[in-house]
Write a structure and sequence with these properties.
The complex is a heterodimer of chains A (about 120) and B (about 210).
Chain A (H helix, E strand, L loop, with lengths): L15 H12 L5 E2 H8 L7 H9 L3 E5 L13 E5 L1 H17 L15
Antiparallel strand pairs in A: 1-3, 2-3
Helix pairs in contact in A: 1-2, 1-4
Chain B lengths: L2 H121 L2 H7 L5 H13 L2 H20 L4 H13 L1 H9 L9
Helix pairs in contact in B: 3-4, 3-5
Classes of the chains: A alpha+beta (about 120), B mainly alpha (about 210).
Chain lengths: ~120, ~210
């Protein structure tokens, strides 16, 4: 008889878009990127990554902040920047390595960035 | 045969003859009365025929008069309507002319304003021109507002601002209305997933 399976605190479900996002952010772990820049780097369509970013942020793998000051001559809304935490970057590398060994046949190379949409 | 017997016989014959004559006379009188009645009847019939012919003529005449009467009043009404229609047409033409002049003035004014805007745009600093050229699709903005309403109250302001910033970036990158709408549509489609992630118990509270 086995008892109820303990649910260990694991990382995010490593879906292909999640892996693409992590891989894009690990390419330059110290660089802050806004949502559209992450989309472009990951080769994903804009408007699809906020659930992934929210999950990673909720787990503490990412942190985000508003940009400090928008140049007035730009006349644009301020951006939200995302960055891997130190712990998040380490966990992301491990999770990606594990996912890659189990699905080595998948092509996770990001698509060539074809623009913002 | 004796003389007395002959005389009696003649008397009887004469008596019978007289009785027959009296009866024939009565019959003749009856015939005369019948003839009078027949003549009266024939006269009445002729009179009735005359009356019927006159009645037919009267009906035809009445019909003709009724038609003439209707035609007459129709002509009168048409004559009354004609000036009214003329006046209405005149008023409509006056209004059309006034509208035409107003449109001319509005068109000239719009053209002047467009030229003034062109001149102002040409004299504005380049950075300002760049900002003014950003055309955010209003429908996409409304969709994003709807998406933020699906999110937990604590996260609405942050994601609303973040979505608007991304939409602005798309517009700034010359992504057209269709592309902006596609972006907003994808946010709509992933709204429930984002909502679930933001409500997850494991979630740390992110910076607002």
């Amino acid at each position: 008889m086995t008892g109820p399976r303990a649910r260990k605190p694991t990382g995010p479900r490593m879906t292909i878009p999640t892996r693409l996002v992590l891989r894009a952010m690990l390419a330059e772990p110290t660089r802050e990127m806004c949502g559209l820049q992450i989309c472009t780097a990951a080769g994903l369509r804009s408007g699809t990554i906020h659930p992934i970013l929210a999950r990673l942020e909720g787990l503490g793998w990412l942190e985000s902040r508003w940009e400090a000051a928008v140049p007035t001559e730009e006349g644009r809304p301020r951006r939200r920047y995302y960055e891997l935490t130190r712990d998040g970057a380490e966990r992301a590398r491990i999770a990606l390595a594990q996912a890659t060994t189990s699905t080595s046949t998948l092509d996770l190379n990001p698509r060539p960035a074809g623009g913002l949409i | 045969m004796s003389d007395r017997s002959v005389r009696d016989l003649v008397l009887d014959l004469a008596r019978d003859l007289a009785r027959d004559l009296a009866r024939d006379l009565a019959h003749a009188r009856d015939l005369v009365l019948d003839l009078d009645l027949a003549r009266d009847l024939a006269r009445d019939l002729a009179h009735a025929s005359d009356l019927a012919r006159d009645l037919t003529l009267d009906v035809n005449l009445a019909r003709t008069r009724a038609r003439d009467h209707a035609l007459y009043y129709a002509l009168i009404r048409a004559r009354d309507l004609d000036p009214a229609l003329d006046r209405a047409l005149d008023r409509a033409l006056d209004r059309a002319s006034a509208l035409d002049r107003a449109l001319d003035r509005a068109s000239a004014s719009a053209l002047d304003r467009a030229h003034a805007l062109d001149r102002a745009h040409a004299s504005a600093p380049s950075s300002r021109r760049k900002s003014a050229a950003v055309r955010v699709a209003p429908t996409a903005g409304r969709l994003l507002t709807a998406v933020t309403r699906l999110l937990p109250a604590a996260d609405r302001t942050r994601y609303g601002e973040e979505f608007r910033a991304e939409l602005w970036e798309l517009a700034h990158a010359r992504i057209g209305r269709g592309g902006q709408l596609a972006y907003a549509a994808r946010q709509v489609m992933s709204a429930l997933r984002l909502q679930a992630e933001l409500r997850a118990p494991r979630r740390r509270r992110a910076a607002p």
